Amino acid sequence: MQVTKVALIGMGTVGTGVARLLIDHGDRTARHAGRTLWVESVVVSDLQKPRDFELPRGLLTNDLSRVLQNGEVKLAAMLIGGIEPARTITLQLLESGKDIVTANKLLLAEHGPELFDRARELGRSIAFDASVMGGIPIITNIGQCFSANQILSLRGILNGTTNFIVSQMEEQDADYAAALKEAQRLGYAEPDPTMDVSGGDAAQKLAILAHLAFGARVHWREIPCVGIDTLDSADMRYAKELGYRIKLIAVAQLHDGTRSVPTTSGALELHVTPTLVKIGTPLAEVRGAFNALQVVGDAVGPVFFHGLGAGQMPTASAVVADMIDTAVGRTGITFRTLNLWSQDEARVKTLDHKQLPGRYYLRFTVEDRPGVLAEIAGLLGKHQISIASVIQHEPSGDGAGRVVPLVIMTQQAKEGAAQTAVAEIDRLKCVRAGSVRMRVLD
Amino acid sequence: MQVTKVALIGMGTVGTGVARLLIDHGDRTARHAGRTLWVESVVVSDLQKPRDFELPRGLLTNDLSRVLQNGEVKLAAMLIGGIEPARTITLQLLESGKDIVTANKLLLAEHGPELFDRARELGRSIAFDASVMGGIPIITNIGQCFSANQILSLRGILNGTTNFIVSQMEEQDADYAAALKEAQRLGYAEPDPTMDVSGGDAAQKLAILAHLAFGARVHWREIPCVGIDTLDSADMRYAKELGYRIKLIAVAQLHDGTRSVPTTSGALELHVTPTLVKIGTPLAEVRGAFNALQVVGDAVGPVFFHGLGAGQMPTASAVVADMIDTAVGRTGITFRTLNLWSQDEARVKTLDHKQLPGRYYLRFTVEDRPGVLAEIAGLLGKHQISIASVIQHEPSGDGAGRVVPLVIMTQQAKEGAAQTAVAEIDRLKCVRAGSVRMRVLD
What pTM was estimated for this model as a whole? Predict the structure, then answer.
């Protein structure tokens, strides 16, 4: 049987999972690849660090040059996170003739064009299915399986940590701080959870998916993004009363700009934001640390994917599948065909976010006195925003100066108009606290 | 740009969709394939038949030899249903040097080994993602994306027609005949719906999936199979009361034979049967003509796919994706690597169906008199079947000789024991009609 010699760079959580699959289950990989993937070296920075998978003797090294100078190693899995030294090592590996498989989404989101151009110049390939949605093979599905389609829309839950937190808030009626603490206790959230809870991680993934599906060239920091760290569990309860759940939803869809319905051409709607999703629809039923994505293609219609978007073995599953694809030659073909992150112009323009149509959930904290609803409805009307439904419950305290929550679901309105109207309402004397505004997925 | 000349054999529903994608959207295909797929000929049996897509002049022919003798045509999409002449034409195409893309699942289920062996002898390939679950690219996902995994289990709704019918029965409280009529009126069911409603279509797909995922070599007629044509909407109501929906579920999972939980080794549990699925789990929420599959891999965990399993454009999407894969060379690699339907021995044994563990839903039609429950419970106990819950409602009629439905959910029991126990119960004097027995998905 043919042998492809491979190297692993990095042996953290994912690297350990990859080593486990390649070494403990080599027979299975050989059967599915028609060849043996032979782990020649595993490069780490600290040789002394305790590891929970014992490598065969002689594999572990802190000397990258052992890989760079070994011409028999044709393929390296780059499993170091962050930008540097990951970027420099990736370039060195490419220059020494290795094809690359990586799970490093930040590296691609920041340096995709540079790395892909260099790989093309050198006749090498980069596979990256593990970098987005872990075990869900969404890169292969969009880049290969749906290639007969114009993708119309991607709507997804791309970050398991935040989905765990919002699920906790909803199911346990917990506040954000308590739900975050629980997520940290269970290892779903990092000690510093900023990149997850700010929506940044989801925006990085969305930037990669939008590039692949639509030819968009948008840096993730340019994607309008609202995190979950200011979510109030009160809004979860009101949403439920209205038949919705709140999820951190990433959206990329083609748009004619008039209604929030995807079309085959137009500009690209692109954002990550807490969104009300109708209970009973697939995205609303995604619980805990799971990821999900609904892809709509003009031929295939809606296809929904649901699975574990992170974690040691799901991510390792994607890395090893990419390693097999690279070893047998499929990746090279796909890489040359799709010409990703090339100097080609973007194939799509981004829709001006202020012009984005959509329905909104609004919550105002207002004085409990006559005329308040009229005043607020008047300001919404001034900005052409129609009201679809209102919830106002009996106030809980009593006496003068009581405040009550006023929840309004709007009809279709423009993002800019909704933003301006809410800012104006927030300046009314009868409004006693900052208002809440969230998009509603139709 | 490079050109790959292709031929379409058959221009029924799917063929028309494929022609539409390749001819109306050639630019898109070219972008995703890095080359033009040029339709050289479309072979049909009846040139005069009216068609709802107008082909460019000179493409349509009833002369297969125009394709067979054209050495420039490297790829043919075989879009004729049934066994003959599809089988003979496929062999002729292979022998004249064409790679094949097909949506003909029956042909593969019956003649897979012959066709794949011949393709291998001739150095050609056969791609067949369109033959199972239409637009859901499940063949590529299992054969390529999950190749780092031992697949533990496949559980799915593989037939949209039957899922539409059972959804109608449940949602409209309709009986089977009325729901079938509605499915026929809307074009979801054929005038002769036998292959769908008997479960045969789902069994053919399951045989292909079990071969791909587990190396099983089981003819679809050997798969234990119960259709939906004897379903009673009363059972839908009782199931709902217990928190379940009834779906036609296809299962292939590895098993140690003791509990209905998948394992990494053992024998293969394989069947298609109406099954109670817990409300709120993904499979229970699949409505209408949709298909869905839950794949569990030992590394990736559970991944769930949901989409349109049939229909003109979803199936055409899969055919054209396979044509692109074949034209660029990915299919050839996969075909050689996976060595499907070869003379290799089966890698897995099928579990003796009588030894299959599982929980059961049982409904008996019994006399409304004291002692009946005891008698039935006694017979179940004799066969080591424990009762988990019972529903017995007030009888609706009155007087002597009244019959009432008695619904029992069991604990884990063996299929054979459940079958024998029900047969014995059916012979009791207090039981007045044939009993109902369905598996419950845990």
Answer: 0.95
